[in-house]
Amino acid sequence: MYKIAAIGDKDSIYGFASIGLEIHPADDAKTAQHLLRKMSEERYAVVFLTEQLASQLGDALDKYRTQPVPAVILIPGVSGNTGEGMRSISRSVEQAVGSDILK
Predict the structure, then answer these.
(1) Which regions in the chain score pLDDT beneath 50?
(2) Looking at the whole model, is its pTM more than 0.90?
(3) Which of 50, 68, 88, 91 is buried deepest, with most CB atoms within 10 A?
């Protein structure tokens, strides 16, 4: 059975535990990258990742776009929305459809 998890600063992801998701606090890119690699090997279907950590990971996230699992979904953290999540969705839609239909 597949699992679902959230990675980010503790304040941003703590609420996910109340709905049964695994939470993995990470405050730096190195920890987040290690957790993502581990989760891709351990049958995680969905990983929620804070936008702040995603911006620190840069190109390391690109390899997860081409893999069927885990689906890495960017979420805003307690510090606010950076817009990176919407840009990520836009890139994925453009890749799947051939043009950006969300603009």
Answers:
(1) none
(2) no
(3) 50
